[in-house]
Amino acid sequence: MYYVSKRMEIAACHKLNLSYESKCANTHGHNWIITVYCKAKKLNKDGMVMDFKHLKQKIHGYLDHGNLNELLPFNPTAENIAKWVTEQFPECYKAKVQESEGNIAVYCKEDSANEKEEL
Predict the structure, then answer these.
(1) Is 35 helix (H, G, I), strand (E, B) or coil?
(2) How many whole angstroms separate alpha carbon 71 and alpha carbon 61?
(3) CATH code of 99's domain
(4) Global pTM?
(5) What is the tally of structural domains in the chain?
(6) How far is Cα 93 from Cα 85, in angstroms, rounded to an integer?
(7) What whole-number distance in Å separates Cα of residue 104 and Cα of residue 96?
(8) Is the pLDDT of residue 10 over 70?
(9) Is residue 119 in a domain?
(10) Which residue in 32, 33, 37, 41 sits closest to 12, CA to CA?
C-alpha cells in the first residue's frame, strides 16, 4: 500500500449553529491547517497515488479566503469539514482539520479504522 499526505493552510471564516449559547455563533475566522491522507494499492500511470496539485486545487482552491457557511452545505464544524474533505477523493481515507492551536478533529473512513493516528 502507498500512502501520501498533503498539509495546507486555509484562511476562512465561519459561524457555528449550536444548541447552546457560544461566541462561535458569531462569524469569526481561523487559519485552518488541513491535512489530507490518501492511499492506493497501485500507483497511477504517472507513478503517484495522486498529484498533490489536485488535492490543493480541490480543497485549498475552493475553501481559502471563503465563508465556510456559504461554501459548505452543513454546519461547518472541524469534524464536519474533516469528513467533507475525505469525500472529495476516493483515494482519501482520512483528514485532519486544525482550527486553532490545540483544537484538532480527525475523520477516518470506517474501512481504514486501523490506520488512525494519535492526535
Answers:
(1) strand
(2) 12
(3) 3.30.479.10
(4) 0.91
(5) 1
(6) 9
(7) 7
(8) yes
(9) no
(10) 32
Q: Tell me the residue range of the domain where 48 lies.
A: 2-112
Which residues share a beta bridge with 76? none
User: Residue 99 has what DSSP assignment?
Assistant: E
pLDDT digits (tens, 9 = 90+) for 48-101: 999 999 999 999 999 999 999 999 999 999 999 999 999 999 999 999 999 999
* Distance between CA atoms of residues 83 and 76, nearest Å: 11
C-alpha grid cell for residue 104? 484538532
Distance CA 51, CA 62 (A): 17
41 CB neighbour count, 10 Å cutoff: 7
C-alpha distances in Å from residue 78, one per residue of 37, 45, 75, 97: 16, 34, 9, 6
